[in-house]
Design goal:
Layout lengths: L1 H5 L20 E5 L11 E6 L2 E4 L6 E4 L5 E2 L8 E6 L4 E8 L2 E10 L5 E8 L8 E12 L9 E11 L5 E6 L3 E5 L5 E5 L5 E2 L8 E8 L2 E8 L2 E12 L2 E8 L4 E9 L1
Antiparallel strand pairs: 1-12, 1-20, 2-3, 2-11, 3-4, 5-6, 6-7, 7-8, 8-9, 9-10, 10-11, 12-13, 13-14, 15-16, 16-17, 17-18, 18-19, 19-20
Keywords: Signal
């Protein structure tokens, strides 16, 4: 969920846009949350008999819902998880890596059981900036009898708000290479058509390579462990407006939104 909500939404420090920018990509861009078209593929969770399972996570994992941290294998952005059952409608999941809290997700199901509101807080930024995302999902199919209200199949409904630190990125295209920087200290500079380079500040060990098929389009391909995990297409559609498509190739999902130059 974290990569789908934040892919391409990357921080908010102001950076002056050159008066005569050499490239239409140069400057600070802020994502428009209201324009987001979220993935159609639903999430499936199960909380029953004291065990929480994220069935659609890649890879899927299970953890005791006792509020304590338990080791998790195979997840690039965390190595331990804690799930606390607050009450019959609310849970708090916390992810940690190498002893540092990466993020928390508080999920609250409405009394009728048809909607879950979530608050996601990302504390993984190297410079300490915190990104908060609020949104909701709607119930497609309930969990089994006797399971917690958060169990079931949930479809993305909407993103209600995202901290400024999570929806802005600073871009620079010098004709030979592309630089992306965020206020949360996530950055890379990669040559067009060149090898993948490490994304600085990325805790998952992700690399990025870029291509520029035309003057108004840049494609970033993310690689981890030699495998493509995401493709992000940035296309200038009008002066100061960019359309961004984020494809999560691991889950087979797609997110679309627009960004405006500040």
């Amino acid at each position: 969920m974290k990569r789908m909500l934040l892919a391409g939404f990357a921080g908010s420090l102001a950076l002056a846009v050159p008066a005569n920018a050499a490239s239409p990509f140069d400057g600070t861009w802020k994502g428009d949350v209201a324009s987001a078209k979220l993935p159609e593929k639903p999430d499936v969770f199960l909380l029953q008999n004291g065990v929480y399972t994220c069935k659609t996570c890649v890879p899927a994992y299970s953890v005791k819902a006792d509020g304590a941290f338990h080791p998790i294998k195979g997840q690039p952005y965390f190595d331990a998880a804690s799930v606390k059952v607050v009450d019959a409608h609310t849970t708090i999941e916390t992810h940690r890596k190498k002893g540092k809290v990466m993020n928390t997700v508080t999920a609250t199901v409405t009394p009728d059981g048809k909607t879950v509101h979530f608050v996601f807080k990302d504390m993984s930024a190297p410079n300490g900036k915190v990104v908060e995302v609020k949104g909701s999902q709607t119930l497609v199919a309930p969990g089994p009898k006797g399971s917690h209200a958060s169990s079931g199949t949930w479809k993305n409904d909407k993103v209600e708000s995202v901290s400024d630190a999570g929806i802005t990125m600073m871009l620079k295209d010098d004709g030979k290479s592309f630089t992306m920087t965020t206020p949360a200290a996530i950055s890379y500079t990669a040559a067009y058509g060149g090898p993948a380079v490490p994304i600085k500040g990325d805790h998952g060990g992700t690399y990025a390579k870029v291509a520029k098929p035309d003057a108004h389009t840049i494609v970033e391909t993310d690689v981890r462990g030699g495998k493509t995990v995401g493709v992000y297409t940035m296309k200038i559609v009008s002066d100061g407006v960019m359309a961004i498509t984020s494809e999560d190739t691991l889950r087979g999902t797609r997110t679309e939104f627009t960004a405006k130059r500040q």
